[in-house]
TrEMBL record:
<dbReference type="Pfam" id="PF00753">
    <property type="entry name" value="Lactamase_B"/>
</dbReference>
<keyword id="KW-1133">Transmembrane helix</keyword>
<keyword id="KW-0812">Transmembrane</keyword>
<dbReference type="InterPro" id="IPR001279">
    <property type="entry name" value="Metallo-B-lactamas"/>
</dbReference>
<dbReference type="InterPro" id="IPR052159">
    <property type="entry name" value="Competence_DNA_uptake"/>
</dbReference>
<dbReference type="InterPro" id="IPR035681">
    <property type="entry name" value="ComA-like_MBL"/>
</dbReference>
<protein>
    <recommendedName>
        <fullName>Metallo-beta-lactamase domain-containing protein</fullName>
    </recommendedName>
</protein>
<dbReference type="InterPro" id="IPR036866">
    <property type="entry name" value="RibonucZ/Hydroxyglut_hydro"/>
</dbReference>
<keyword id="KW-0472">Membrane</keyword>
<feature type="transmembrane region" description="Helical">
    <location>
        <begin position="12"/>
        <end position="34"/>
    </location>
</feature>
<feature type="domain" description="Metallo-beta-lactamase">
    <location>
        <begin position="49"/>
        <end position="248"/>
    </location>
</feature>
Length: 294
């Protein structure tokens, strides 16, 4: 034993020092991350032609809305999550299309996910089937939005689910956009509306039902397509900022000129993932700090 210690003494001491140093580093990086973090940061990831938004609160609560068209979301998450963090509290799938669900398959494989929220509509694709298979396999709690719901989390922050207001569970739709999960983040007097791929019919319903009012930031519906961001809707919600998630040079011509001019007409400052890269929005004591990273 003694001989063993003599031989390996140097290595053992180094191992101990390294271990203590690692512990110290982990502790300090956690403290550093918490003390410098804003109340809430919202990232609109540049995932190409698709959608993915990430909400990260100072207390560590993390919510991912959609995952984009491929595994790129993993590197986006890796850049903004602490390296020792291997869990995400909630995943919201707005609807079943591949440019929203595919990246979530990789996220479900890589991270421990606490809960999944979706619209539950029937949709027959390999990507959506795989997404559902992993949820079942890992026994992840799943909630289907079939009425307005509110999720309270960090320090008065609320994620309000505004749509669908009825059950689409198992129903096959001609256009699955009609069941898009629409949510609004309210924090410190600021409101961010996540439209998924909701189109004009949902925009109109939200207005007529009084579900939306004046907001600060709009994640424009359907990648800035002319199917969405109707001027009637925009005149009610009057966002100061609009974020459009679209791929550079995408074949759909997103965002449309119509949407860009509708947004310009109400004076919204427009950010685009295809031009600006990932857009980061921090809310701290009710103030916004916006930054972009290509
Ligand atoms: Zn879609």
């Amino acid at each position: 034993m003694l001989k063993f210690f003599e031989i390996y003494r140097k290595q053992i001491i180094w191992a101990v020092v390294f271990f203590l140093f690692s512990l110290n580093f982990i502790t300090w990086s956690s403290v550093f991350a918490v003390s410098n973090a804003p109340g809430i940061a919202v990232y609109f990831f540049d995932v190409g032609q698709g959608d993915s938004e990430f909400i990260s609160a100072k207390d560590g609560t993390q919510i991912l809305i959609d995952g984009g068209p491929n595994a790129k979301v993993l590197s986006d998450l890796g850049r903004v999550m602490p390296y020792y963090d291997n869990s995400i509290d909630l995943i919201v799938l707005t609807h079943q299309h591949a440019d929203h669900v595919t990246g979530l398959i990789d996220v479900l494989r890589r991270y421990k996910v606490g809960m999944v929220i979706e619209n539950g509509a029937g949709y027959n694709t390999a990507e959506y089937a795989e997404f559902e298979r992993i949820i079942t396999e890992k026994n992840i709690k799943k909630i289907i939005i079939d009425r307005p719901e509110e999720l309270l989390f960090y320090n008065g922050a609320v994620l309000k689910f505004l749509y669908p207001e009825r059950s689409y569970d198992g129903e096959t739709l001609k256009n699955v956009h009609d069941a898009t999960v629409v949510s609004e983040l309210d924090f410190e007097g600021r409101k961010i509306l996540f439209m998924g791929d909701a189109e004009k019919n949902i925009e109109a319903r939200l207005v007529y039902e009084g579900a939306v009012g004046n907001i600060d930031v709009l994640k424009a519906g359907h990648h800035g397509s002319k199917t969405s961001s109707n001027d009637f809707f925009l005149n009610i919600i009057k966002p100061e900022y609009a974020v459009i998630s679209a791929g550079e040079g995408n074949r759909y011509g997103h965002p449309s000129q119509q949407t860009l001019s509708n947004l310009a007409n109400i004076g919204a400052k427009i950010f685009r993932t295809d031009l600006d890269g990932t857009i980061k929005l921090e809310i701290n004591k009710g103030n916004f700090v916006l930054s972009t990273q290509k």
